[in-house]
Amino acid sequence: MSRNKKGADQAGDGLHLDDLPRLGRARVVGVAGTGPEVTRLRELGFVAGTEVSFARFAPMGDPMCVRLRGAELCVRAREARRIRIEPLPGAGGDA
Amino acid sequence: MALVGSPNSGKTTLFNALTGLRAKTGNYPGVTVERKLGSVSTPSGPVDLLDLPGTYSLLPISEDEAVAVTVLRGELEGEDRPDAALVVADATSLERSLPLLAEVIGTGVPACLVLTMVDELKARGGSVDLFRLQRELGVPVVGVVGHRGVGIDDLRALMADVKKWRQPAEPPPFDTEGRFAWADRALAASARRQPAESERTRRLDRVLLHPLAGPAIFLAFITIFFQAIFTWAAPAMEAMESAFDALADGLLASAGDSLPMHLLADGVVRGVGGVLVFLPQIVLLFTVIFFLEACGYMARAAFVIDRLMGWVGLEGRCFIALLSSYACAVPGILATRSIPSPRDRLATILVAPLTTCSARLPVYALLITAFVPARPVLGPFTLQGLTLMGLYFLGATSALLFAALFKRGLLRGASMPFYLELPPYRFPSFMAVGVQVWRRVKLFLRRAGTVILAASVILWFLLNFPRTAAPAGASANEARQSVIENSLAADLGHAMEPVFAPLGFDWRIDIGLIGSFAAREVMVATLAQVYAYSGEDDDTAGLGIILRRTDPATGKPPLDLPGALALLVFFVYALQCVSTLAVMRRETGGWKWPVFAFGYMFVAAWSLAFAVHEVAARWLQ
User: Fold this and answer.
1) Burial zone of B37 (CB within 10 Å; 0-12 exposed, 13-18 middle, 19+ buried)
2) Which terminal residue of chain B has fewer beta carbons within 10 Å of its beta carbon, N or C?
3) DSSP label at B267?
4) What is the pTM of this model?
5) Chain B interface, mutation test: which of A16, A34, A40, A43, most B Cβ atoms within 10 Å?
6) Chain A partners of B304 at a C-beta cutoff of 8 Å?
7) Which residues are within 8 A (CB) of B522 and not within 5 positions of it... i.e. 6 or more apart?
8) More confident: B318 or B146
9) Hey, is the C-beta of B419 within 8 angstroms of any chain A C-beta?
10) Which residues of B touch A79 (CB under 8 A)?
């Protein structure tokens, strides 16, 4: 899938949803893994091609709240690391 | 017909608008998912409408979803397969709610789409062409504004004739990605414009979820919450208490001193009344909770506190349920229904009784006033006040500690991902809040009328039988004393003595413990009966003096300081409350977990009370 020069961090290849705060907006590539937890994240709307934008952090820095498909959804960092994203074409990388 | 939709889709409001607030509630057979059935009048006659649990999808991951999908497939035993399904979707977030429709169509049940909050969609500058959407999706589409009744008549007309519903020629894709793509395609072809972010929500969240102001407001919210439970409900509770006392006294005074009258007055009126006095608290508590829930603030509160709850292995929503338990564990346990993860929910149910419910307060008040000196310690704080605070703190930390323990041991396993939707702020309809409060109140009243009534009557028999003739020339008090000393309760108390003697409780205190089983504060009334204390009923200081005074028969006071402290600690932990056990059984679907909870709390209560007794006996006397 899409590789990003800055994104080679501990969570494997590419960017993940926990990179969203500095990107501002991005597009979902997919959710890594299988099993009911992964299915649940996909059912919530984290499917390939969906645009997500960062809304805010909770006061203690976790969970974070993102906007997707017309709704605001909170996920913890642990789940955010499983969701792969890519920058929007033409958008600046660092917000 | 079945009503299907995600949480926050406006499903409940629509259900109320269609059924006119009359719904039969119960549980689905064999599971603890709430079942709601109402009747809708349509041009062709009444139609039964089943409100399925709110779900994002029909993949049977959670118990709620499993119920929804088995009902739609006609596979749930004891439940007829619905003839048709109304799929409810929030018009402002169609991109997320439409894929559910694809799944419902996939089950083969004729479906139609009901778009809610079409007024809000317009107000926020969004749009969708319902006519084209109907053509794209291949199913009937109706737009409604549930709380204003807009579009409800069109929906009734549609419900009247399911046979005329058009259904898509070929079923939509079944996989997740495919369904979302199907929805996106249909929306793109229907002149869909996504609404702008709700201005009101953006402004409110800038304050309510502000890194500093947010937690401050959250703390203020908790303070108001406690204020509501303890202060605002107090006058109504006291009024009810004196009303029940007056009724009991009136019964005895007017109908004479016969045994059946005593049963009615002491057993039924005072026993059940002792529990019914919590009604004002419960009404207030649920009004606040459901109002904030419907506004959208509860989700924000869970968002703010989630990190802290994450440390003990729970999540933000568990905190809200534990908070309710400060009034009474019964509504607290009912409030766990909003927790999606079954393990988190069970852990919360198991520790909810450890939070200091208000039924403990009269017992704490009695023992603290009697045994702890009112010495000032620091500024406005006295030793008594600090002791009370300490007991609350002990309960709260123990609840979190045990929850962490359960989540790491007994209830360990692959956890569900945490997710929480922050719905736009909406002003709730008072009707909807009222209906929800009433449903909880009804549950509480039903229990008071059954379990607690039975327990009170049994307790009365234990304390009054077998009847023994009082020695000649005995005063009324001595006669009463003699009945109690020869009663079955006394036998039970004596039988319990070996267990509780190490904690410093004698057989009379043990009878009080039996009494506290009906409801914890019944302990006070039971002790008053046992010690044949004839003063004013609620003058607990008087009873306190008796507890401390040396009993001429034994040369010891009924309770010494180490014993009193042990009793306090015992009350922090022990699960001696039939209503809580009954609601636990109901919510966990069997006796296994209530028995487990009773067991672990008893072990904790006994061991810690024993430790406190030992330490206090050595150092405090």
Assistant:
1) middle
2) C
3) I
4) 0.81
5) A43
6) 58-59
7) B271, B274, B456, B459, B515, B516
8) B318
9) yes
10) 417-419
pLDDT for the residue numbered B6 = 85
Residues 78-107 of B with CB under 8 A from A: 92-96, 99
Q: What is the pLDDT of residue B471?
A: 65
How close A5 comes to chain B (CA, Å)?
27
Nearest CA in chain B to A79: B417
First and final CA of chain A: distance in angstroms?
A: 23
Q: Which amino acid is at B332?
A: G
- Chain A: nearest CA to B431, how far in angstroms? 26
Q: Read off the tokens for B332.
A: 């607290």
B300 in the Ramachandran plot: left (φ > 0), alpha (ψ -120 to 50) or beta? alpha
Cβ distance B307 to A71 less than 8 Å, yes or no, reads no
Collapsing DSSP to helix, strand or coil, B67 comes out as: helix
| Best mutation target, A41, A72, A75, A76, to test chain B (most B CBs within 10 A) | A72
User: Tokens at residue A48, please?
Assistant: 């390939």
The pLDDT of B608-614, averaged and rounded, is 95
Question: What is the predicted ipTM?
Answer: 0.83
Residues of A with CB under 8 A from a CB of B: 35-37, 39-45, 47-50, 56-63, 65, 67-76, 78-79
What is the separation of C-alpha B144 from the centre of its chain, rounded to a whole number of angstroms?
A: 32
Asked if B435 contacts A89 with a C-beta cutoff of 8 angstroms, the reply is: no
Q: What pLDDT, on a 0 to 100 scale, did the predictor assign at position B532?
A: 59
Residues of A in contact with B422 (CB under 8 A): 65, 72-74
- Residue identified by tokens 């979803």 is B65
Contacts of B95 in chain A (CB under 8 A): 45, 69-70
Calpha distance B102→B181 (Å, rounded): 11
Domains and CATH numbers, chain A: 15-86 (2.30.30.90)
What tokens does B104 get? 């419902």
* Residue B599 CB neighbours (<10 A): 11
User: What pLDDT was estimated at residue B469?
Assistant: 66
Cα B117 to Cα B154: distance, rounded to the nearest angstrom: 15
* B421 → closest Cβ in A35, A71, A79: A71
- State the SS3 of B162-213: HHHCCCCCCCCCCCHHHHHHHHHHHHHCCCCECCCCCHHHHHHHHHHCCCCH
Residue B139: band (very low, low, confident or very high) from pLDDT cuts 50, 70, 90: very high
Task: Answer yes or no: do B416 and A36 touch at CB < 8 A.
Answer: yes
Residue B547: left (phi > 0), alpha (psi -120 to 50), or beta? alpha
pLDDT in tens, A68-82: 998 899 999 888 988
A33 C-beta neighbours (distance < 10 Å), count: 10
Residue A26's beta-bridge partner residues? A52, A87
- Which tens digit of pLDDT belongs to each residue from B29-55? 666 677 888 898 889 889 999 998 888
Partners of A66 in the beta sheet? A54, A73
Residue A45 contacts residue B96 (beta carbons within 8 Å): yes
Contact state of B303 with A37 under an 8 Å Cβ cutoff:
no
Contact A63 B307 (CB under 8 A): yes
**What is the least distance, in Å, from the CA of B321 to any CA of chain A?**
19
Query: pLDDT over 90 for what percent of chain A?
Result: 40
Residues 6+ apart with CB under 8 A from B361: B521
Inter-chain CB proximity B307 and A69 less than 8 Å: no
